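Handoff note, outgoing to incoming analyst
You'll be picking up this chain. Sequence as last confirmed:
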Amino acid sequence: MGTESHSLSNVYLKIERAKKHISDCYAVGQAFLDARPYDIVHRIDPDTGEDTISYGDIKNPPRELSLFIGDAIHNLRTSLDFLACQIIKLRDSLHDCEYTYFPISESAQKFETALQKAEVKSLGEQALQILQELQPYKEGKGHGLWQLHRLDIQDKHRLLIVATAGTKHFDAAVTPNHDGVDGPPGAIDIFNLHIPEGEALVIPKKGDAIIAINSGHYLSDGKLNVHGNFTIDLAFGESQIMKPQSVYYSLVRFSELVTETVSKFAPLFP
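Most recent structure output, in case you need it:
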């Protein structure tokens, strides 16, 4: 963390502010998830004969959550523009930075064009070299910076889409019913699903199956006891920008990425 006299201090302040919004986002999101925002229903699929554990009614996350997310993203994106301004001020302390920005582009070609603009070239050769190494454009090494940039633009026009995602982890044990009484402790079948952090989640619709079991393995009436732990999550629903990844995981990743980006320019500063 920079001190107030350090020329990067305001950059780090923006990043710290983003982290506060990320923390608020986690608290609101977790409270929503803890309230079990969807039902789990149990039915026989008439077409396949499978005993299916499916999603019932699914609640939408509170809109307040999108406000925290948008504020976090905006602070992170703005910190990079602050960085660009401070780089210029190394050579001209009175520069007003009115047209200064940290270039992030839609493609490699557009990025190269941006590097030729006067307001970007004024960052100096060393900074331009670092930018070229970063490749902050779609499908470049800095693809994550492009995602951050696009989400920030989207948030300027509407609330970002956040959806209740499907099961991220579950461990389910299935035992038969015996005249309405729970079966023996030993499970007939064990079902597991564990989606690693950063992997795409599923945004379910009402009626989508979670697990399906051939009911012929059990009782003639198809009744089962399902015991287990289901962990759900929240995901971005901005499919043109990113896969439906965990919101909290993505925000932490963006925060780390911006911090790493700033650190690459830190040697330019006395």
